[in-house]
Design goal:
Number of helices: 2
Strand content: over 45%
Helix content: under 10%
Shape: globular
Largest sheet: 20 strands, mixed
């Protein structure tokens, strides 16, 4: 069943009715609507498909009063309910502009779902987050945009319900693709992955916003999880600098694969720490500002630099915060000098054989 709504009250009702009626799609037919209460995504769906589409058709949705989110799923009471409502229930939220007016915490805050698809949504002026998935397994957020967000622009996070813990409630296998974030001064992070494994950020942009400097562009936090073992940040673009780092990593084993980046300004490019010999792979950077820095917080994390089209010297201590190089690193790649270079912790021999080094 397809339902068309024209105002906030009808939207709230139609979404609620999907719990007891065979509603599979809700279309918003209005240029602008104001919400005086949140749109609560139901914990159960009547439709056999267990999938609900909310299509804004380009509408603007504004917060009329303070609220936790404009659109979101209520917190489960415990881990048992979280696992039950997560299984095989997904939602598509698309084609809308969400104005939190500085009084709503989140634009979209989804919890405990599988195969959510959020696309072509812009969120502005939220207090805590633009679009955040908590325990959103295999979700896809694409072609979305955030502006003037105080906390997290777009996030793939673990659940926060009672008993969630860090190892069994992550937004594992979540993907953020072709999204853009215009930061606010002091914003925590434009993009984030918290206690979630195998997450990916593909072709995303940390844009410029009138000299507004965020703390981080991308923030990956293990948060005590033993499953936060891999993240991919590929082909990103950065139009601003940051106060902490463009990419801030905290890993629990596994690896971070950072590829195809094009940061245009100085600052700390990558800041990393990890346990169990975590690996940070940095390759195919198209540009690194000569004044940029890297930061190795510990000496156990392994750093790999490969095929970066830049003359930047990763082995120069002055290019590292506190002049501290990683305890373990390996460098290879095609540089501006058109020579292949291989370096392993600055050594010229590996297993008794000569290493071809950069002239």
């Amino acid at each position: 069943m397809i339902v068309t709504v024209t105002n906030g009250e009808n939207l709230i009702k139609a979404v609620k009715d999907a719990e007891t009626m065979n509603i599979t799609k809700i279309i918003i037919d209005a240029d602008e609507i104001t919400l005086n209460a949140p749109v609560h995504i139901p914990k159960k769906l009547k439709a056999l498909s267990k999938y609900l589409i909310i299509d804004g058709c380009g509408t603007t949705i504004k917060a009329g009063v303070p609220m936790p989110y404009l659109i979101g799923r209520p917190q489960p009471v415990d881990a048992n309910e979280a696992n039950n409502i997560m299984q095989s229930q997904g939602f598509e939220i698309t084609n809308m502009f969400l104005d939190c007016k500085g009084i709503a915490d989140y634009g979209i805050q989804m919890r405990c779902t599988y195969h959510d698809h959020i696309k072509r949504v812009t969120v502005i002026s939220a207090l805590k987050g633009g679009i955040v998935e908590e325990f959103g397994m295999n979700c896809l957020i694409e072609q979305c945009e955030t502006r003037n967000i105080s906390g997290i622009g777009i996030g793939l996070h673990n659940g926060t319900y009672p008993g969630a813990g860090y190892n069994k409630s992550g937004s594992n296998m979540g993907t953020v693709s072709q999204c853009r974030s215009f930061p606010k001064q002091g914003q925590t992070a434009c993009f984030s992955s918290m206690a979630s494994g195998n997450t990916a950020f593909i072709r995303c942009t940390v844009d410029a916003a009138s000299n507004q400097i965020p703390m981080r562009g991308f923030w990956v936090v293990n948060d005590g999880s033993t499953t936060c073992k891999s993240v991919r940040i590929t082909d990103f673009w950065a139009e601003t600098t940051t106060s902490v780092a463009m990419i801030d990593l905290s890993l629990t084993g596994g690896y971070a694969h950072i590829s195809g980046g094009y940061p245009q300004y100085a600052g700390t490019m990558v800041r990393a720490q990890g346990t169990n010999y975590s690996e940070v792979h940095i390759e195919r950077y198209g540009n690194i500002n000569g004044s940029a820095k890297f930061e190795a917080i510990d000496q156990d994390t392994c750093w790999y630099f490969g095929a970066n089209a830049t003359s930047y010297d990763f082995t120069n201590p002055t290019n590292w915060i506190a002049s501290t190089l990683p305890g373990k690193y390996f460098i290879e790649g095609f540089h501006y000098n058109k020579e292949w270079s291989l370096r392993a912790n600055g050594a010229t021999k590996l297993n008794g054989k000569n290493i071809l080094t950069q002239p």
